[in-house]
Design brief:
The protein is an alpha+beta fold. It is 33% helix and 17% strand. Helix 1 crosses helix 2, helix 1 runs parallel beside helix 3 and helix 2 crosses helix 3.
Length: 145
């Protein structure tokens, strides 16, 4: 039996063909109470606080800075990187973040080419920890800007 969990993330399309990071930031920040922030502002902040290698439309460090800088005062957690490269570990951390933190993770896909928001999952049991391997992940629900 599937145990779905889904967060109420309002979908926002990216305003340009390279604003996927800004659109994802917009969706998650809107969900946690920051309001509907303009993608132009989010994109510019991502870039002005990134030291990642050239070629990123939105570098991970710039996106992380923007998420923590723009989070509302009522949201007491900090956003953080999670860097394993294997699909199983990342997928389990995503499910745990949704279940335990009640916030949608932003994930990098397509070989570091595109950002998406993961808003929910279907599993065979609730995760009990970020590395809980006792359940099966049957699907992830995403907002692909």
């Amino acid at each position: 039996m599937a145990l779905p969990e889904e967060l109420p993330i309002v979908y926002h399309q990216q305003d340009t063909d390279y604003y996927c990071g800004a659109a994802c930031a917009q969706m998650v920040l809107h969900e946690i109470g920051a309001g509907l922030l303009p993608q132009d502002d989010l994109y510019n902040e991502n870039h002005s606080h990134s030291t990642a290698e050239p070629g990123w439309s939105t570098g991970p460090d710039g996106l992380l800075y923007t998420m923590n800088d723009r989070r509302p005062a009522a949201f007491h957690d900090l956003f953080a990187f999670f860097g394993p490269t294997d699909e199983d570990s990342i997928s389990r951390k995503i499910c745990w973040t949704i279940h335990n933190g009640k916030v949608a993770p932003i994930a990098l896909v397509y070989g570091s080419q595109h950002w998406i928001v993961v808003r929910g999952y279907d599993t065979t049991a609730e995760p009990s920890a970020s590395n809980d391997g006792t359940y099966t992940i049957m699907g992830l629900e995403i907002n692909n800007p």
